[in-house]
Amino acid sequence: xxxxxxxxxxxxxxxxxxxxxxxxxxxxxxxxxxxxxxxxxxxxxxxxxxxxxxxxxxxxxxxxxxxxxxxxxxxxxxxxxxxxxxxxxxxxxxxxxxxxxxxxxxxxxxxxxxxxxxxxxxxxxxxxxxxxxxxxxxxxxxxxxxxxxxxxxxxxxxxxxxxxxxxxxxxxxxxxxxxxxxxxxxxxxxxxxxxxxxxxxxxxxxxxxxxxxxxxxxxxxxxxxxxxxxxxxxxxxxxxxxxxxxxxxxxxxxxxxxxxxxxxxxxxxxxxxxxxxxxxxxxxxxxxxxxxxxxxxxxxxxxx
Length: 304
Ligand SMILES: [Zn+2]
Description:
Layout: H1 3-9, E1 13-17, E2 22-28, H2 30-40, H3 44-61, E3 69-76, E4 82-88, E5 92-97, H4 114-117, E6 120-127, E7 135-140, H5 147-158, E8 162-170, E9 176-186, H6 192-204, H7 208-213, H8 218-226, E10 231-234, E11 241-242, H9 248-256, H10 260-269, E12 273-276, E13 283-286, H11 288-303
Parallel strand pairs: 5-11
Antiparallel strand pairs: 1-2, 1-10, 2-9, 3-4, 3-6, 4-5, 6-7, 8-9, 12-13
Bound molecules: zinc ion (ZN).
Zinc ion (ZN) binds at residues 244, 246, 277, 279-280, 282.
């Protein structure tokens, strides 16, 4: 099976329990996360952190509506600094971190994200279509291992108790051989019995990446956690893929964020500048005249 075939075969699987008190989503995103790794040539720590954020964004975005997107932004005081992942309802995802080549500590057997990310903030932004104002929620990082941080966000911002299990495994050559996750959310009116059943399943469940390495599918992951419930499958027929929607306009806007002083320095050099998209590495050339346009619009908005 080619990489593309494998990719197009995977979808976020969504279910509800028959009593409607639990909704859940699961995905095997191994190929998509490995594509992210190959685009950024990222080392294991960044691959695992960015991959987990990507899986979480795919799972959360699957509960949005058509043409809506969701982004996860992690900002810590550790050496990895920043991780950004974004996914659409339709399963298109992209991600990057600011330190893709961060080395693992020499004595580490297992990749721990907490020391790499440090303490900081998690921001989830829900982008609506048609340019309406996005909804944004920020919480402090709880463990900096990402899964628990997302669960904390869902509790704090949406009062939804949840289980967020994420797993990314990197092989001896630095490639991603397993990446996926499960998001289980308890809806209003759920009973203590529901909570007990899920807690027992969480205790018994093997790590996500181990299950994927054993050949488990997204449906198997759902059964690991919700085997005690009667499930109703919800249609969500979008193959997941790594996809960047960058345009020259968006890249110019990001150059505008450098600020007037830096723009003036660039303009003074009177040279064409090349700017790469953070998500896909695509290069855009910006001419001095375009830089001046960017400066004009930055200046204009600074007066408002
Ligand atoms: Zn791009």
